[in-house]
């Protein structure tokens, strides 16, 4: 079949809106009509050329929601008409990682996913006979896409696609980092670096679990009002702090934060986030994704004296199990997604969504087909 898609043809160039060929689902695969997709900073990271796994030409997008149109042989858990959210972190429930119960990082298809192909080593997308690659196993910047059955969460049919698509990455990553990875307790003090599409969900998660102090750090002063609405108790603009940021934050949190979250992808900020965590027990969670060749540094003494440096992918969530529950939380009014979706754009304006993010004018732009 043919499908409309936004193709990343080369690093740093706008997406090219094209009609490409899409082969139907093979064994264990599912054809999905994508109804809506968010634009996450990770899409921009890969499009910019900073992603060591970036492949061109590819169809980016990993924050979608849609409907099952067709299933391949031996697909048992999904059928035509089911509403689904694609999962860049699948959940096979059979691999060593899934069975360990220690991580959400299912490895069943990770190797081929990183190479931009389906588990059988081929791409379902092509253009003029040449392959166009998948991205994060999801490629939601295509109106129709093919995914392995284990990379789809079945969700309730009354959930609005243009809202719950955000659960496919940003919402789950932010809330999950608080609940699953950091395991923040009521009364905790926390610092969130970066108040964008991920950081504001961390703030929202911190409020949900009853954190007492939620400090937000961002260079963009326009982030303040929305962050306060989501539960931020103190705003810090590093550009306005006299002297070093770390001692300032340590004093503000009365000795260091119990939990800190880096939601930017800046290795210097990752160091600040670790070093303003409380001596003896502070945990610092890396969420931001840093470009090829970048490394983090700190004095080992920071760790010797009890700070813990850790990271999270997809908020530690097991997608097929956890995503339908998070959709329920939204539908029950426990989560605010609506206020974070600042722009809804038709597919033809997808590049405007990237521009809004680069200029710091959006939290989440959602593209509808
Ligand atoms: P975003 O662009 O919406 O937000 C980034 C925020 O950081 C902006 O508000 C910006 O003003 C702020 N910022 C930039 N530089 C800063 C600095 N030096 N100090 C303080 N604030 C600064 O991006 P997003 O969609 O929220 O994504 C954030 C990061 O999380 C990205 O690196 C993205 O790739 C990553 N991410 C990781 C996961 C994961 O599973 N680990 C999931 C989703 C996104
Ligand atoms: N490909 C990059 C790393 C990109 C990355 O860390 N991706 C996160 C999700 S970001 C979603 O917005 C992730 O899930 N990582 C775990 C994994 O297995 O990819 C690189 O540096 O090579
Ligand atoms: Zn993302």
TrEMBL record:
Record keywords: Metal-binding, NAD, Oxidoreductase, Zinc
GO molecular function: alcohol dehydrogenase (NAD+) activity; S-(hydroxymethyl)glutathione dehydrogenase [NAD(P)+] activity; zinc ion binding
GO biological process: formaldehyde catabolic process
EC number, UniProt record: 1.1.1.284
SUPFAM superfamilies (alphabetical): GroES-like (SSF50129), NAD(P)-binding Rossmann-fold domains (SSF51735)
Catalysis: reaction(s): a secondary alcohol + NAD(+) = a ketone + NADH + H(+); S-nitrosoglutathione + NADH + H(+) = S-(hydroxysulfenamide)glutathione + NAD(+); a primary alcohol + NAD(+) = an aldehyde + NADH + H(+); S-(hydroxymethyl)glutathione + NADP(+) = S-formylglutathione + NADPH + H(+)
Domain Enoyl reductase (ER) positions: 12-367
GO cellular component: cytosol
Cofactor or coenzyme needed: Zn(2+)
Enzyme class of the recorded protein, top EC level: oxidoreductase
Pfam family name, one: ADH_N
Function, as annotated: Has high formaldehyde dehydrogenase activity in the presence of glutathione and catalyzes the oxidation of normal alcohols in a reaction that is not GSH-dependent. In addition, hemithiolacetals other than those formed from GSH, including omega-thiol fatty acids, also are substrates. Also acts as a S-nitroso-glutathione reductase by catalyzing the NADH-dependent reduction of S-nitrosoglutathione.
Similarity remark: Belongs to the zinc-containing alcohol dehydrogenase family. Class-III subfamily.
Name of protein: S-(hydroxymethyl)glutathione dehydrogenase
Organism placement in taxonomy: Bacteria, Pseudomonadati, Pseudomonadota, Alphaproteobacteria, Acetobacterales
